[in-house]
Write a structure and sequence with these properties.
This protein is α+β, with helices and mostly antiparallel strands. The chain has 14 helices and 12 strands. Helix content is 33%, strand content 22%. Helix 7 crosses helix 9. The longest helix has 15 residues.
Length: 357
C-alpha cells in the first residue's frame, strides 16, 4: 500500500480561494455566521461537506456532527449492538439466516487459534506461519486472506491482507503480524472475489456499497441512501478514512452520481468524476446486482429490531451481493455530505423528527 501525503489546512485554503465554483467570500462569511447562530457551534462542516460550493443553496438541510452523532443511541440499543460491533458475533448471528457472508477460516483469542472445531496453542512466529500454511492448503481457492481485528476498530484500521506467497519467505512482516494478532482477537477471512464489473472501476480493493436502512416508527424497513466506496490510493481497503472516495448511488437505477468525494485532507476540494487509475466515468457506471443488494439489506435489517439505524457494507461478488458488515455507529456526517443534507432525504426526515431535530 502506498502512503499518500495529507494536505494541510493552508493548502486546502489556497485551493478554496482559487475555486471558480465557490460562493463569494462575503456570502461564505455570512453563511458561517448564520449557521453558528442556528446551531450554536462553529460550523467546521461547512468546508468538509462542501457547503462553500455555489450550488449548495440548502445549507439548513445539513447538521453539525455533534447533533448527528448524538442521535444513534436513540435508535440502536446498547445491548443489541454486539452483533455488529464484534465481527465474529456478526457471522454467528447472520449466517443461520442464509445470508451470503465471507467465510471465516480461523479466529483467535490471544495465542489460542480456532480452526475447524480444533484449538491450537501457538507460541512462536514459525508455528503461526505453519498454521497459516495449513489454512491456505485447506482452502486452495484462496491466494490471499483478510485478517481483521474482531472488535474495537473502525475505518479500515487493523485490517491486513496476507498473500499465500508471503508465507514462504522469511518476511519479518509475519513475525510482526504474529506479535500483533496475539495481543487480542482477530479473524482470518477468505478474500471476497468481486464481480468483474467492480474490478473495471478499481481492482486494488473490494469496492463496497454503504447502504443505510431505517426501521421507521411503524416497524417498516426503509432504505435511506447508498454510496459506493473505492480506494483511489491503491489501498486494499476502501474506507474513506484510509484514502477512499465515495460516490452516491441512485437508489432506483443503481447508477453512480457524477461526482465523488474524498476527505478534504486526502483530496482537497476536488470532486473527481472518474476513477484516477481506470478512468471509469462515475456517471456512466451502474452497480451490478444492485436490486439484490438492496433486498439483502432490507432483509437483514429486520433480524435485529433493537437496531433501527444501520449502515451496511455490501460487496458485489461474482454471483451476487456479499454482506461484509453492519455498523450501528457509522459515519452519519459522511451521509450528510453524500445526501447533500440529511434533511433533504425524505426517510432521514423521519429519523430527525423522532429526535425532534
Ligand atoms: N473478506 C474480505 N475480502 C476482501 N476485502 C475485504 C474483506 N473484508 C474487508 N475487506 C475490505 O476492507 C474494508 C473494511 O472492512 P470492514 O468493513 O470489515 O472493516 P472496517 O470498516 O474497518 O470495520 P469496522 O468499522 O467495524 O472497524 C472493506 O470495505 C473492504 O474494502
Ligand atoms: Mg466497513
Amino acid at each position: 500500500m502506498k502512503n499518500f501525503s495529507k494536505l494541510g489546512s493552508g493548502q486546502i485554503l489556497k485551493q478554496l480561494l482559487k475555486d471558480p465554483d465557490r460562493k463569494p467570500l462575503l456570502k461564505i462569511a455570512l453563511e458561517l455566521v448564520y449557521l453558528s447562530f442556528v446551531f450554536r457551534t462553529l460550523p467546521k462542516y461547512y468546508f468538509s461537506r462542501f457547503l462553500f460550493k455555489k450550488d449548495r443553496t440548502n445549507i439548513r438541510d445539513y447538521y453539525p456532527g455533534k447533533l448527528l452523532y448524538g442521535i444513534k443511541p436513540h435508535f440502536n440499543e446498547n445491548g443489541a449492538t454486539d452483533v455488529l460491533e464484534n465481527k465474529l458475533y456478526f457471522d454467528f448471528f447472520y449466517r443461520p439466516f442464509n445470508i451470503n457472508l465471507p467465510k471465516i477460516l480461523m479466529y483467535n483469542h490471544r495465542d489460542v487459534f480456532v480452526v475447524n472445531n480444533m484449538t491450537h496453542h501457538i507460541h512462536t512466529p514459525s508455528e503461526f506461519r505453519a498454521l497459516l500454511q495449513e489454512v491456505f492448503n485447506a482452502n486452495k481457492m484462496n491466494d490471499s486472506i483478510f485478517i481483521k481485528r474482531t472488535y474495537g476498530t473502525y475505518g479500515g484500521a487493523k485490517i491486513y491482507k496476507l498473500l499465500s506467497g508471503q508465507l514462504g519467505s522469511d518476511s519479518p512482516w509475519i513475525n510482526d503480524l504474529f506479535q500483533e494478532v496475539i495481543q487480542s482477537g482477530y479473524l482470518f477471512q477468505e478474500t471476497v472475489k468481486q464481480h468483474a464489473e467492480m474490478n473495471r472501476l478499481n481492482s486494488s480493493c473490494l469496492n463496497t456499497l454503504r447502504l443505510a436502512t431505517f426501521i421507521n416508527p411503524d416497524g417498516q424497513i426503509e432504505m435511506i441512501n447508498g454510496y459506493l466506496r473505492t480506494s483511489v490510493t491503491n489501498n486494499y481497503v476502501d474506507n474513506i478514512t484510509a484514502g477512499g472516495c465515495a460516490i452516491s448511488i441512485d437508489l432506483t437505477t443503481g447508477r453512480l452520481d457524477e461526482f465523488g468525494y474524498m476527505s478534504l485532507k486526502d483530496g482537497g476540494i476536488r470532486m473527481p468524476t472518474e476513477h484516477p487509475f481506470t478512468h471509469t466515468i462515475f456517471s456512466e457506471y451502474t452497480i451490478p446486482y444492485f436490486e439484490q443488494a438492496k433486498q439483502m439489506v432490507i432483509e437483514v435489517a429486520g433480524y435485529q429490531p433493537g437496531l433501527r439505524l444501520i449502515g451496511w457494507d455490501v460487496a458485489i461478488g461474482e454471483s451476487g451481493p456479499v454482506l461484509i458488515e453492519g455498523n450501528s455507529d457509522f459515519d452519519v456526517a459522511g451521509m450528510d455530505k453524500m445526501m447533500k443534507g440529511v434533511r433533504s432525504n425524505p426517510v432521514f426526515r423521519k429519523v430527525l423528527k423522532e429526535v425532534n431535530l
